[in-house]
Write a structure and sequence with these properties.
The complex is a heterodimer.
Chain A lengths: L27 H23 L8 H29 L5 H6 L10 H4 L5 H22 L5 H29 L3 H15 L2 H4 L4 H8 L10 H14 L22 H15 L6
Helix pairs in contact in A: 1-2, 1-9, 2-6, 5-6, 5-7
Chain B lengths: L13 H4 L2 H12 L12 H20 L1 H8 L5 H26 L5 H9 L16 H22 L5 H29 L3 H20 L11 H6 L7 H19 L9 E3 L4 E3 L5 H8 L6 H14 L1 H19 L1
Antiparallel strand pairs in B: 1-2
Helix pairs in contact in B: 3-5, 4-5, 5-8, 7-8, 7-9, 7-11
Classes of the chains: A mainly alpha, B mainly alpha.
Chain lengths: 276, 328
């Protein structure tokens, strides 16, 4: 649609509701919340993967899991540092990672799920990384250059995560009877957490309206198509749809997250005056 | 990370039955500091000694992931978590190069891993001690990686080409690890009373086991003479241990920490530190698998291997199916 010339609004005026309004700035609180979602997803999944270190089925797998964990912790650091900056209360990424409780975490349910067996770990990774890849592809065009820059850097890492996980889904699905059964179970466990990835609430909608965030609902079909391709490649059937489990973006999580945080946060909380 | 030679040599008589002409040519090449490559002729005892040493080194890297991995999930900041993850990842990488280097001598990785899990193969005694506090991660980087570097720098010129080349890359990464570990110690030693206590306690617990990493004293090290002659080793255990003490004591002083050895003193005449007697009984007990957390380490390694068997089988089955499809 051809657009009319932009209307210059007086400083401080909200463009919301105005005809062909220029993009507005999201409120500080909403942008902060949006950044927490991005950072917490990476942080919690990175923490989960790092639990594997030294215990993987082979040295090569150990390397690849640690590598992904490292990428994710790096993304989390960038997003959470930025979140702290946006919040403007003197908190940095560490303060946000180590001094919030469950209700203030904004990650999705999928990433906090326990590792389970290797098939469950790979099911989680594949469902998440496939989504995160599409998200970051688009986020790299964010109007906020700080977010765009992080996403543009991270998308290369995530492309590798997506490919690696998809290969494992195929290999395990089309490997032995046992690996097939485990892969089916792993996907079945994770499937109910997929709809949450595509949830568009007020904060996500505002971020989209401001040109800062991504309309995740818009790439749902593409995501489903990618999933179908890999599942077919693995010789599997897609799991039956399950009742969606939602709430992570509002701080309502599984029981697993509290235990994860207890371990992750223990040192900075036990010695709050220490620098490390 | 590094491992010492633990098994008593049974190879001494073997050299006698090798082809004397080939043996002489081999020894001349080694003496001329040439690299021996996988396809070159080598005495069986050389092959066996190297296979043992490189595989022990590889196992040490892999088992060494456990004490540090123990703290990745509890690292106190995002930066420290990333650094530790990268470090443990490097160790997995070292394990891979080293297994590959050992495989060039004709033993498969599966055979080596089997030998580790059965208790037949050894790994560095140092990893049989527990990591209790975050300062242990600093102390391991500083002392254990420091001792490893001391051992490994000469191995960059070891006579077996693939091992020497693996060591070049390993040494570069280990020196990062050592500095990172020392930096953790610096921050903690300059930190709160709790942090200083952790730092001193870590030094107290890791000091002696680090000195043991260089292996038994020269007079009790059965393989040293032969290994030096074949340039598998280039400096003796005691020489390397002394070097380590000389370099590390001033570093401890700079941290304001006390090395837990009342006999430690600078010997002006020797130009070295004198230090106390190592508890060799403890060393031999730990070599025998009686270290404080030796059972935990082996249990964790065996569990990872056994629980991952179905994954490796699936990968192999898939690869076979793919090959069959491509052939069709």
């Amino acid at each position: 649609m051809a657009s009319l010339p932009p209307i210059d609004l007086p400083a401080g005026t909200s463009g919301e509701g105005a005809f062909d309004a220029p993009v507005a700035e999201p409120s500080r609180e909403k942008l902060f919340d949006y950044l927490l979602r991005l950072g917490d997803d990476s942080l919690i999944l990175g923490q989960r993967l790092s639990e594997y270190c030294g215990h993987a089925p082979s040295v090569e797998v150990d390397l690849s899991l640690a590598n992904m964990a490292l990428d994710l912790i790096g993304q989390a650091t960038l997003f959470l540092d930025l979140a702290g900056e946006v919040e403007g209360k003197g908190r940095d990424g560490d303060a946000l990672a180590f001094h919030r409780d469950v209700l203030d975490f904004r990650n999705c349910w999928l990433v906090e799920q326990p590792n389970g067996d290797f098939a469950q770990t790979m099911a989680r990774q594949w469902l998440f990384s496939t989504w995160q890849k599409s998200l970051f592809d688009r986020l790299a065009n964010s109007r906020d250059p700080r977010i765009a820059e992080i996403a543009a850097k991270a998308v290369k890492e995530v492309a590798y995560h997506q490919d690696l996980a998809a290969e494992w889904v195929i290999r395990l699905g089309d490997g032995t009877e046992e690996s097939r059964r485990r892969m089916v179970d792993g996907l079945d466990w994770m499937w109910r957490f997929v709809p949450e990835l595509f949830e568009m609430d007020g904060i996500a909608a505002e971020a989209v309206r401001c040109g800062i965030g991504v309309d995740v609902a818009a790439f749902r079909d593409d995501y489903d198509r990618r999933l179908r391709e890999v599942i077919a490649g693995a010789g599997l059937e897609p799991p039956a749809d399950q009742r969606p489990i939602l709430g992570g973006r509002r701080g309502h999580h599984s029981e697993h997250l509290g235990h994860l945080l207890a371990i992750m946060q223990f040192l900075p909380r036990t010695y709050p005056d220490s620098k490390w | 990370m590094y491992t010492t030679e633990f098994q008593k040599s049974r190879d001494r008589k073997v050299a006698a039955i090798e082809d004397p002409a080939k043996l002489a040519a081999f020894e001349a090449r080694v003496a001329a500091d040439e690299f021996i490559e996988p396809k070159d002729w080598m005495p069986e005892a050389y092959r066996r000694t190297l296979t043992r040493q490189i595989s022990q080194h590889a196992h040490s890297e892999i088992v060494g992931m456990l004490p540090e991995g123990n703290w990745i999930s509890r690292a106190p900041s995002l930066r420290r978590k990333a650094i530790l993850l990268a470090k443990v990842q490097d160790e997995a990488g070292h394990g891979l190069y080293l297994y590959s280097a050992a495989e060039t001598l004709g033993t498969s990785r599966d055979e080596m891993i089997e030998a580790l899990h059965s208790g037949k193969a050894k790994y560095s005694t140092i990893f049989n001690y527990p990591t209790l506090t975050w300062a242990d991660i600093g102390a391991i980087g500083w002392l254990v990686d420091g001792a490893a570097i001391m051992n490994q720098v000469p191995l960059q010129r070891t006579s077996y080409g693939p091992y020497a080349r693996a060591m070049v890359r390993v040494c570069k990464e280990e020196s990062f690890h050592q500095r990172q570990g020392y930096e953790i110690m610096m921050v903690m030693a300059a930190g709160t009373a709790d942090q200083k206590r952790m730092a001193q306690d870590a030094l107290n617990r890791w000091w002696w086991p680090s000195l043991m990493m260089f292996g038994p004293p020269d007079e009790m090290s059965p393989n040293t003479a032969q290994s030096m002659r074949w340039r598998i080793k280039r400096e003796t255990n005691d020489e390397l241990r002394q070097k380590f003490v000389d370099i590390t004591v001033p570093q401890a002083e700079a941290l304001g920490l006390t090395v837990p050895d009342p006999a430690l003193s600078w010997n002006e005449a020797r130009g070295h530190y004198d230090f106390g007697e190592i508890d060799w009984e403890e060393f031999h007990a730990v070599v025998r698998g009686e270290g404080p957390v030796a059972k935990e380490r082996m249990k964790a390694r065996r569990a990872a291997w056994e629980e991952g068997a179905w994954v490796r089988e699936a990968a192999a089955a898939y690869a076979e199916k793919q090959a069959a499809r491509e052939a069709a």
